[in-house]
Amino acid sequence: GQWTLAGGTSAAAPLWAGVMAVADQVAGRPLGYINPSLYKIAASSQYSSAFRDVTTGNNNYAGNGASVVGYQATTGWDPVTGLGSPNAANLIPLLIQDSQSG
Fold first, then answer.
1. Contact 71/59 with Cβ under 8 angstroms?
2. Phi, psi of 80 (to 5 degrees)
3. What is the DSSP letter of 67?
4. CA 79/CA 71 separation, integer angstroms
5. pLDDT (tens digit, 9 = 90+) per residue, 19-57?
6. Hey, what long-range contacts does 96-101 have (CB within 8 A, 24 or more apart)?
7. Residue range 76-86: average pLDDT?
8. Measured over all CA atoms, what is the biggest interatomic distance in the chain, rounded to whole angstroms?
9. Residues 79, 61: Cα–Cα separation, whole Å
10. Residue 10 has what pLDDT?
């Protein structure tokens, strides 16, 4: 009966499943294990076009009598936001290209 905020893995896993379903369709084949390609793209000059780097915020928690200090978002990969938000329109062609060269 009330609104609540949700995120984290519960939001990211279905988002990535959707991005990969589209990527597989565009490629005409399964791209398979993409982690090496993601980090290769992130280390390249294409990073800023493939991801929106989230550089502010944290995953601290305070509530229900508990207080947990988490991690701060920072430039590049961090434990809060990973590589950032994917820009699927730019990321998908890069993933397909990298999977063909690997």
1. yes
2. -85, -50
3. E
4. 7
5. 999 999 999 999 999 999 999 999 999 999 999 999 999
6. 96/23, 96/26, 96/27, 96/31, 98/37, 98/40, 98/41, 99/27, 99/31, 99/32, 99/34, 99/37
7. 94
8. 52
9. 15
10. 84
Q: What is the mean pLDDT of the chain?
A: 93
Check: CB of residue 19 under 8 Å from CB of residue 26: no
Q: State phi, psi for 27 to the nearest 5 degrees.
A: -70, -25
User: Are 59 and 80 spatial neighbours (Cβ–Cβ below 8 Å)?
Assistant: yes
Measure the CA–CA gap between 19 and 6, rounded to whole angstroms: 20
Query: 83 with 41: CB under 8 angstroms?
Result: no
Q: How far apart are CA 78 and CA 83, in angstroms?
A: 7
